[in-house]
Amino acid sequence: GVATCLDYLRIDRVFCSPIPLARGKLVRSEHGFIPIPAPATLEILKGIPVRDSSLEIENVTPTGAALLKVIVNKFTEFPPMKIEAIGYGAGTIDTPQLPNLLRVVIGELMEENREEIWLLETDIDDLNPEIFPHLEGALREAGALDVVFIPNRMKKGRIGITLRCFSEEKDKEKVLDALFAESSTLGVRGWKVSRWKLHREEREVNTSYGPVKVKIGFKGSKVVNLSPEYESCLRLAKECGVPLKEIYQEAISAGLRLLKEKKE
User: Fold this and answer.
1) Which of 251, 218, 220, 219 is nearest to 233 (CA)?
2) Across residues 35-56, what is the average pLDDT?
3) In 10 A of CB 135, how many CB atoms?
4) What distance lies between CA 246 and its chain's CA centroid?
5) Which among 204, 188, 197 has a CA at the least distance from the CA of 219?
6) Domains of the chain, with CATH numbers?
7) Which is nearest to 24 in space by CA: 13, 14, 33?
8) pLDDT at position 136
9) Where are the beta strands (DSSP E) in the chain?
10) Strand, coil or helix: what is 145?
11) Average confidence (pLDDT) over 44-71
12) Residues near 225 by Cβ (< 8 Å), separated by ≥ 6?
């Protein structure tokens, strides 16, 4: 029914707030009485943000959790949108804490390329410098979006490093685990920050040395950035035995020609 509804209404993307989980009450199952949330529900919700609920009923079932995990594109707060329609579904149980309702809002998404990510930061002055490249690799492998090392003067005049890395919510714990495991830090600061991104497309352009991938950044329909892809340029420079900068220059020229042809 849910899949049919999404198809009938031609829904492109589904957003959902963190899942409110009631807890503490026992419910009857084929295996006897079990606490809520049910063990199966919690297993399915691994990797999905949840929050506490004041309800004292099983408000999230394994079936409901499975549907949400499959159909939701992003778990977030209410996205910027032009509202077109609103629907309500009522449960059969009356709850004194909150109305037993599910609300669905349909609308046109207003594209805003702002997102919230975690900034994780720590100061280090007692780690062998030879380990920092490995630390950076471990953080990126754990899901860090970027890793920055900033020289810093710390207490007692010691020269140290301020390490900053950025992570999406879903990867934060893995990044923290890697940071504690691979560095000498005893504590990490963290807070949420906003990040604005250009719409990006990857194209392949032809140069006199061969094809190169380029990344193009758009703001609306306007091109504001064009950047050759480093690994693609490096591979071609090694294959052809030419300076890397020559590949970069040709790739940028080819990318600009491609964009000009598209306009015409």
Assistant:
1) 251
2) 85
3) 22
4) 35
5) 197
6) 2-109 (no CATH), 115-196 (3.30.70.1380), 199-263 (3.10.20.300)
7) 33
8) 96
9) 15-16, 19-21, 26-29, 32-35, 50-52, 74-75, 81-90, 101-109, 114-124, 146-153, 159-167, 189-196, 199-207, 210-219, 222-228
10) coil
11) 87
12) 198, 215, 216, 217
Nearest Cα neighbor of 18 from 116, 112, 93 is 116
Q: Tell me the two tokens of residue 89.
A: 């579904």
Specify whether the CB–CB gap between 192 and 177 falls below 8 A: no
For residue 59, the one-letter residue type is: N
Angstrom distance (rounded) from CA 15 to CA 78: 8
- The residue ranking higher by pLDDT, 120 or 47, is 120
Identify the DSSP state of 171: G
> Computed over its alpha carbons, how large is the radius of gyration of the chain?
25
Task: List pLDDT tens digits, range 151-200.
Answer: 999 888 889 999 999 999 999 999 999 999 999 999 999 999 998 888 78
Identify the H or E element spanning 55.
none
